[in-house]
Automatic annotation (TrEMBL), chain A:
Domain of life, per lineage: Bacteria
Protein name (record): Branched-chain amino acid ABC transporter permease
Species for this entry: Sediminicurvatus halobius
Sequence similarity: Belongs to the binding-protein-dependent transport system permease family. LivHM subfamily.
Chief location category: membrane
An example molecular function term from Gene Ontology annotations: transmembrane transporter activity
Automatic annotation (TrEMBL), chain B:
Compartments where located: Cell inner membrane
Gene Ontology molecular function, alphabetical: branched-chain amino acid transmembrane transporter activity
Name of the protein this chain belongs to: Branched-chain amino acid ABC transporter permease
Pfam families with a match to the protein in the record: BPD_transp_2
Segments passing through the bilayer: 36-53, 65-85, 97-118, 125-142, 172-188, 218-239, 259-283, 295-314
Record's bilayer topology term: Multi-pass membrane protein
Annotated Gene Ontology cellular component terms: plasma membrane
Taxonomic placement: Bacteria, Pseudomonadati, Pseudomonadota, Gammaproteobacteria, Chromatiales
Keywords from the named record: Cell membrane, Membrane, Transmembrane, Transmembrane helix
Amino acid sequence: MQLFLEQVLNGLQFGMTLLLMASGLTLVFGIMNLINLAHGSLFMLGAFAGATVVAWSGSFLLGLLAGVVTAGLAGMAMEALVLRRLYRRDHLDQVLATFGLILLFNEAVRVIWGRRPLGLTLPDWLAGSVEILPGVGYPVFRLAVIAVGLAVMAGLWWLVMRTRLGMRIRAGASDREMIGALGVNITALYTLVFGLGACLAGLAGVMAAPFIAVQSGMGEDILILTFVVIVIGGIGSLRGAVAGALLIGLADTLGRVYLPDLLRLWLPPATADGAGAALASMTIYLLMALVLALRPRGLFGDAG
Amino acid sequence: MRADRRLLAAAVLVVGLLALPPLASAFGNPYLVTLVTRALIYALAALALDFVMGYGRLVSFGHAAFLGLGAYTVGILNTHALQALPLVGGWSGSNEALVAWPLAMLVAAAYALPVGAISLRTSGVYFIMITLAFGQLVFYLFNSLSAYGGQDGLPLWLPNTVAGREMLEGPAFYYLCLGILLVVWAFLQRVVRSPFGRVLVGCRENPRRMRALGYRPYPYQLAAFVLSAALTGLAGALLANQQTFVSPSLMHWSQSGELLVIVLLGGLATLIGPIWGALALLVLEEVLVTVTEHWQLVLGPLLVLVVLFFRNGLQGALDGRGARDD
């Protein structure tokens, strides 16, 4: 029971990281109809900038800020220099161009930071654990990631649903010709939305850095998972991104812990462990195939 | 005008490829043959992908699975033949290409059938992602198949023989790959122009109208997907022989991405484009590696520039004006 609670929290924490990535990606797709494979590169840049500044300054908050700002600036530069020219082009052109950007960013990171992975050491106030149940400790930082994820989602909801900017974002998503005709500077709006998505990717990068090796190419694995999330949820839907991220985060984490045990009920232990591990890494892809086979446009996708 | 230029370009390509091995040995650079053999095999896989992607608008992000299944079919048959281990019903595999390669195509096609049947319920970006998911399933499956090397992969101790003769090296293997590529190219050219191909293109352009005309897109698209998978499986079998090694990395999604890039770089829906694309990408990589360790720093922006300025890939640039071939 205690293990189960810990694993659920781990799953939530992983889900929150995915959610930070997925919300940016799905906003950009929903509003600009742009497939950005290089979104994972922004995650990577955030993690590198964060890890570097934390190592220099010893301040985690400064590192967090650096990660968010670096990814945001890189994202807006990417939008202004390349992606802006691709909004009206075929999705395949966008795939090819952003694949080129991935190669560029991965190699640039190798040139600047070298091939050895960086680590990010947490300060004392984030490194300990707190008692969540009598006698059961849980790492503070993982709880902090969950809290930040929730706060960002609340903020994003407020921004999109309750502000004038959000109104324009939603209007741009449903009819970009019309909102341009109404006198909104659509070019600036797009850059801003793209920058916002990039900042969230950078934030995800810094928040994930303590758990994984910060190295070139780290963005691709999470990018694929993020795509799984938004496709399960329904592309362009923020609600779908939330549902998809939590589903994938929990399914992946719980699958890895419990599938081997579950299979031991029927199989000899060695076989069960092997098959369980294999099945666990396939869980989310099986889940995605299942969801799409039943609902071809995802859980919250528009019908049609 | 466009047809003339295209014919000329194709003729130059074929003559150049035929003349490559003697030229390479004359200039004392036999390594070039190995490199271009690899490019020809990738061209074959990209050609198969271009068929479904260009003519059927079925953007598959999971073709690496078919490549890997083809390669593993050869690898597993060879392992069993070498160790005289029974595989199915007392039969212990074979290292004969005429047995292994058709089986490789069959295995890839057999996996493509259910995958296509489910994936074709979706379309657009969803289709891209569900094919990716099915590709990753096979990747993780072979990663955990410890009987066949798991993550470490499987070396091919015995290369395939062709009708009992060893010819899977040097210029002989090169010409074999070139021959297969040209046959597949001619075959797909015919398929695209056949009534089957016209229906496929019709469904790409306007599925609703095709339905009104009484055609159901689904069986046509599924048949095209399975055919494409079989041809990709053949490319996988060739690749296994060239590398004398198979590993799950052949099935990683980035491999699917590379095939996609080759097709787009060469020119979507042109059939000959993927051959240009594969040659260009693999040779370019090779050249850039000798210039700088950080060759991706050059290749990445180059791809971006190709997208921005050559809208129909290299074949589009050769054609002069941009128009797809169908």
